Amino acid sequence: MQSRRKFIKNTGILSAGLLALQSEVFASESSIFNFPMKDFVSKRPPLAQRKFTSKAIEAAIVRIKKQIANPELAWLFENCFPNTLDTTVDFEIIDGKPDTYVITGDIDAMWLRDSTAQIWPYLPFVKEDKKLQELIKGVINRQTKCIILDPYANAFYKDFNQVSEWKNDMTKMQPGIHERKWEIDSLCYPIRLAYEYWKNTGDISMFDADWKKAMELVLQTFKEQQRMDGKGPYTFQRNTAWATDGVPLSGYGYPVKPCGLIVSTFRPSDDSTLFGYLIPSNMFAIEVLGYLVEMFSSAGLKDESIVSNAKELREQVEQGLKEQGIIEHPKFGRIIAFEVNGYGSFHMMDDANVPSLLSLPYLGAIAPDDQLYLNTRKVVLSENNPFFYKGKAGEGIGGPHTGADTIWPMSIILRAITSVDENEIRKCISNLIKTHGDTGFMHESFHKDDAMKFTRKWFAWANTLFGELIVHTSIHYPQILSDRNI
């Protein structure tokens, strides 16, 4: 079947140009003249159908596109970077406060992880756009409500009376919860968002009694899942043939030996862990616990109890990481394990979802040039990682969630963002250009040998993250974007 791009080429420049102008499919008038109209028609919704428009983001799109010499890359950037704002946000004022519900794309539910990650790339622009600032405040407020409803849940509905399709899961399901898979990162991400918003704006207006209550619940939940005093209150079981959707041994998972680390029953992929101490997520927890200490030590937010509890917990997790999370690889030396159980067993792999071992510098959990990270990076980007794939279409990391031989564009994006090697970054961007499956967007995954075989047509996190990569590259490696032949 002809791709849309080839079809437009074959029907001629005049008809394509007229179609583009008449249907107002370009993001802005100035974008029409940045590259040949015959090749790439914007895939963004018409202006009137967009969920939210930010002047700062629109200006950034125009500005950065002018740096991009490759027309396909410029087209991808314009389609992807605003995708979260264009298609997934629902902003309103509730009880006098901004409230923003953020779906993932083709799943009408809000994940604490995804909603933070989708909005994250827009944070550098909040000072330029008060509307955008209010939108992000709304995400913080909505996440606060979700955590208070259930700190063990990972995904929620806008309507807290809505009953989930997963209502028969054997866990403490209640209305308003889409899914109740306990993942450490689900509570880390809202802290990351709140902290970065605070650092960018100094605004503490949304950090009220409810937000403080949510942060106390985060600390309580982390403490419970250290399992120092028993297994804790959380269990999960599901009637399913999909092994990674179930949790063994009455829903508690395989045994762990308490060591200071926090159990994560599920990974960021929403797949169950093999060994409960998921190290990338524990390292993320260490980072955000530091954020809580800083925030609650500051003027206007001071709370000695939260500071003390966060410090103590952080020290315990750091000690557990030092004693259990670092292993000796026979070929690569000291590396970070993916999962451990405290008994000396470890699981060596990496998954495309964030937090992952590959993504740790992106989360601020380790420096990108730290030798421990560089050793680990060599493992996860090689055949020593059972979920690293090379094929005709490209190379990258996948995971059990989408099956064997599937590569997640997210892993290629994070490989580039965390790299300090210009050639590696160039290679990653080139691979992403070649693997969007003629859609103009990123996907959840694609087959290693055929990019036209992909999962999820509408996955806003991957789209916006791709935009973040291009913004990052425009700042740090503009020479890459100036290469038309990338």
Automatic annotation (TrEMBL):
Coiled-coil zones: none
GO molecular function: hydrolase activity
Keyword Phosphoprotein: no
Key words, A-Z: Hydrolase, Signal
Transmembrane segments: none
Keyword flag Signal: yes
Residues in the signal sequence: 1-27
Cross-referenced Pfam families: Glyco_hydro_125 (PF06824)
Top-rank lineage group of the source organism: Bacteria
Name of the protein in its database record: Glycoside hydrolase family 125 protein
